[in-house]
Request: fold
Amino acid sequence: MSLRAQRGNLYVSAFKKKIAALRSQLHFSRYRTVLNYMSTAKVELVKGNNGNMDKNELFYFIQDGDTCLYLRDVLKYRLGISRSLLTRLKEEQRIRVNNQISRTDYRLQAGDLVTVDIGLQEQNPIEPVDMQLDIVYEDADLLLLNKPPGLAVIPRGRNSKDPTLANGVSFYWMRQGAACLFRPINRLDKDTSGLILIGKSQYAHQAIFRQIKQGILRRTYLAVVEGGPPGESGCIDLPIA
Reply:
């Protein structure tokens, strides 16, 4: 087994052993994320009888003393919805108060229930290609893959014929009947192996980036060293691939 393969296997093995402990950081939970904004927020995933995700919704219950008086403030400051996503949600009428489609300038009252359907149907422009994927972890919001060396993350151009990870993930989602865009959180060079984190919705993608900026989500690199380093610390300025 090559040194590169040993390093990749060690990395994946170490991650799988620690996945339970890291779940609070790497497992993007809508409930946990929204709680970072307001302790009274409640978020649920509603599933149909077939077990597939029919609705992907956020809920927020207005209580006495809430400082957000207007719906637009709850969407921005409590649920962390970006301006671009809010525009799409408004266009598709996916924002409700007490199960009624509502304008964002609606003045909220205690007891109101805000519901946001973030399960937008999207047109994936990437051609699906059947390939074997090494899925390390997956839930309703993110997909974590172990990318092998020799496979690019995204196509270089429209005329590129070499299959990429994006093509394989697109086929995987197509087979599941999911309409998602390929939104990688991080990228790796073609000849580099390692973990790739993918947001399965615009909301999840933006929330994970927000967690990275806040230091909640961190990337850790493991390396296999051959021989004895001359000191406890130093700088290696050489190509990694």
About this structure: The beta strands are 41-47, 53-61, 95-97, 100-101, 113-117, 135-138, 142-147, 183-184, 194-199. Residues 63 and 235 are 54 Å apart (CA to CA). Residues 1-11, 14-54 have pLDDT under 50 and may be disordered. The first strand starts at residue 41 and ends at 47.
